[in-house]
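Homework help thread (please don't just give me the answer)

Our assignment gives two proteins as sequence + structure token strings and asks us to describe the second one. The first is just a warm-up. Here they are:
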Amino acid sequence: MTIKQLLVEAGAIQVGVRESDWRAVIALAARPLVEQGYIRPSYYQAVIGNTLDHGAYYVFDEGIAIPHARPECGVIKNCFSLVLLEQPIAFQDSEKADIVILFGATDGNRHIQDGIRAIVELLDNQERLARLRAATHWRQVVEIL
């Protein structure tokens, strides 16, 4: 299944989010995944804990954050959640990001190889990033992806 299919299946696309607390953004990104049975609450709590312990190593210069934790922290099924923030925010002491993609993978190797690679390939396009940032509805995001 593609990122797009997983996002739609989980109902995990949120657009125009106004939030300045990075912890709240991670919890918000996780909410549909918890509700749909893709992850346990312990998963996003591990993401927050990892960020506090190791920094926001998942924030990239392009304003994209890809928060994640190890599969054993509570992943039930492979999943993605997308949050588009109205204003970029810093995660801990990181650069600011306004595109947040929380993901979970059931297998440690797929966690890095498939998850992050798929996201990077999807977002390695400046025009697509600009269109995502301009989206005002989740259906627009689906069309862009």
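The one we have to describe:
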Amino acid sequence: MANVIDVAVIGAGLSGLQAALDIHNAGHSVIILEARDRVGGKTRSVQRLDGKGMQEIGAAWVNDTNQFHVWDYCQRFGLTPVVQNINGSVACEDADGTCHLFPFGEMPRFQKAEIYNIVDIRDFVEATCLNPKTFMEPHRAALDSLTFEQWLRDAGAGTRAIQTATLWCRGTSGQDPGEISALAFLEVARGGLGIINLRYDGKDGGQHLRIREGTQSISNGIAKLLPSSCIKLSCPIASVTQTMPQLYSVTSTIGFTVKTRKVIISIPSPAYKDIQFDPPLPHQRQIYTTSTRYGCFVKFICLFKAPFWRSQGACGLAQSFRGPVNHCRDTSVDADENYALTCFLCSEQGRRWLALNSSDRRDAVLYQLGSLFGVGYDVVRFEFIGSMTSEWPQDRWAGWGCPFPVTPPGVIGGYGDGQLAMEKCDGLYFVGTEFTDEWRGYMEGALRSGKRGAAQALQDLRM
């Protein structure tokens, strides 16, 4: 059939780029249609105004052991890993504003009974998420009928354990444990090889390495492996219409139309509402798409003259039960004199922070950092030289959020384990970091999902 592309990919994030590359390498024609004026999706690396290196507005962390796809690209493109700093103490802020430091790898200085309860609940979550039976019936539907918070309380979680789990939940999805299903959280924890590894900043953990050149270099590098003619930017999609059993028409808002045999959809599910599907997506997929949602998840990156927190014996990792910052990490690159703390504003605390004007937002964070690291506002303000803020809550093409959408109770229990990630609709295939059971929400998960979607499409093209 003349002028028909084998596969059209909607979205040039990591999952879309990987899918397109696999299609291209298999000898099939492919085109990527991207709404933004750049590739990379939720990888967004921005150079500091003073030229001292890059900071990550979007995805930031990788590791070199169990995230083999993303690490392979880091090596292939000659990118420079930066080991996440874990030398020193972690800062902790209680709900009343009391702060203290404790050694990395140990527990905060709470009462013994509280620590025992936190450890018991953490180990319970760990064992449950690593047990394959958890995700099979009859457990699957039962877990999806409860919020993560209710499930924890039923397991005996006390106040401190709930506060700790709230930190996990907010740091993972920007939502509170009372907003998402227990099954949804446990699936995320399983994908990171357990809740301990998911949260860990050391070797093998989810936050072990950063990339000096910026993670968007990975997206840019993959794009360069494709013919430039197969990537069309600034091309938002308006409709996907099945015109024949093996033929689709994909039309953009600017009037550009592609005829294609298969369509790989590589955008977050909250952005599906911007596309008219004819015929409509299957009913169960529509229920998922309309139910899944983002929390509030904002990065506020503070740039400093010097890493003042290290003089206090702190590694830069901090957590707070009070807010507005839920947690922060040292995202410095010392070789570039690029000293920074990346602060995460999440859930209701993040929404209240966003309602402030810009100077009040800045001061709220700087006051909190002064308390967390025991130096006071004046020291932090003196060292502060500027900030960078993520724009994902205002990003239409991301579906107005980050890092990935999560479901409340009663949505995914009807799917079998892995079904949502594997499900297709005739010649439509759904990929992205939310559609994977491995490293969901991470770059590695996006790449694995893209490879899976490409394999499905290639198999069907051979039929």
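TA reply:
I won't write it for you, but here's a hint about the kind of observation we're looking for: Residues 5-42+216-293+404-462 form a domain with the FAD/NAD(P)-binding domain fold (CATH 3.50.50.60).
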